[in-house]
Amino acid sequence: MPAITAEMSAPAPALPSPPRPITPRVRRRAWGDIHVRFWWLSALAVAVVIGWFTAHRVREALRDRDLIRNGVVVKTTIKTAGEKFIAGQSEMRNSFKQVTLLGTMPDGQEREFRGEVPPGPGYLVIGHPLEIRVARNDPSEWTAQLTPPPWGRELAMSLMFLPAIALLLLIAFLMRGRVLRVWERGVPAEAVVKEVKHSAYAPRSRVLRFSVLGGDDRRIFTMLCPPGVPVPAVGEQIQLLMIPSKPNRSIWTRPYAG
Question: Domains of the chain (ranges plus CATH)?
Answer without folding.
Answer: 186-258 (2.40.50)
